[in-house]
Amino acid sequence: MASVVSSDASDASNTSAGTGAAGRGVWTVVLCWITVMLEGYDLVVLGAIIPTLIKTRHLGITAGDATTIATLSLVGVAIGAVLVGPLADRLGRRLLLIGSVVLFSVFTLLVPLASSVAMFAVLRLIAGVGLGACMPVSLTMMAEHMPARRRARASTLTMTGYHTGAVITSLLALQVTDDWQVLFYILGAAGLVVAAVQWFRLPESEAFVRAREATGSQRVPFTELLKPAYLRAGIGIWVASFMGLLLVYGLNTWLPKLMNEAGYPVPTAVTQLLILNAGGVAGLVLGGFVADRRGIKPVTLGWFAVSVVMLACLSVRMHSDLLLDTVVFLTGVFVFSAQVLVYAYVTGYYPAAVRGTALGSASGIGRIGSIVGPTITGALVAAGVGHPWGFYFFAAVAVLGFVAVLTLPGRPPAAAATAGPAEAEAVRPAV
């Protein structure tokens, strides 16, 4: 009887532990998704209010000032993404994510209170540093939470929050009209609430804890990625991420104008941006599902290859609205998810000890592409050759992304195999 009681008690204990782990897992998924949603919200908020800032001459802001503010915001995001990786691998995912959300939220709340254009720009720069750190850590935590066989879906499904946030901002911007300050107050307040919930509910990544226990080290410098075991993959990832975000931001910024230059009426041109992003959401769901079954590298190659074809097709004037909508939708499907699949490769290729650093560097260098893309495309538009050369440029960028992914190793480095059974399983999807 005693043995039966002991067995029952053990089963009950195991059941309770399993239930607790499942509950913590749900909080990880929800809170990481919401964090990425905040970045999607911020992606659109500045663009949504720039016309109002210029029209009302708030602080004397001009079109040139608005461009500077937008650029500095992206520079801040790039800095945050690069800096957070080594810190997350040293101090932990949980602490860095909460700290990043707080930093971003506090300085976002201060933006409407800026007393000069320079202060407005500095506040956006600092908020960008916090924001840039959020996505790499969220993607890392999600990847380490999900089973290895679902590593690609962990990245792509998390990124659907990005587009959801962008849609929410667009809808709110239509309601607040000239009261643009409300958009920043909502974003900052929501961020602080999320950070408070994270403090009480977000668990630390178990993969990070195991990696720290195994290595006994808390310092993971960026130079770790430059060692022979990781260098080849690092170069390919950085180039692919650069090209991928160049495409994402270049298209989101200039697609309506390029469509208008091609001869499409303004309402049709603007509608294409919505169709493009709708395709992006569908592509994220589809891309992760397929990559988990067929392998992340080959699917990423396929996605960049189809992107080349779709972007080249957009350089041709189409006389059927249905055909145009279909091509733009498919462009969103493949271009947007190709970029995220690069992140999925990172989470599958690198062991937990350097995963945060690797993902932060990929995101940070990619952010440089997010600045370069709109700049070059804008120069083509200013020169009067936005169409068709804008799409030729995008297609060439997708070719370079394809070549970069082609150079990526098909298998994790041998060193990762010595990290233990958990990490060996974790890196397997990169094959």
Q: Cα-atom Rg, whole angstroms? A: 22 Å
Architecture, according to CATH?
Up-down Bundle
CATH class: Mainly Alpha
What proportion strand?
Answer: under 5%
Low-confidence stretches: 1-20, 415-431
| Rounded mean pLDDT score | 80
Fourth-level CATH superfamily: MFS general substrate transporter like domains
Topology as a string of helices (H) and strands (E): HHHHHHHHHHHHHH
First-to-last CA distance: 51 Å
- Proportion of residues in helical segments: over 70%
Largest sheet: none
Q: What's the number of structural domains?
A: 1
- Please report the total strand number as a whole number: 0
Number of helices: 14
What class do helices, strands and sheet pairing give? Answer: mainly alpha
- Find the CATH topology: Growth Hormone, Chain: A
Overall geometry:
globular
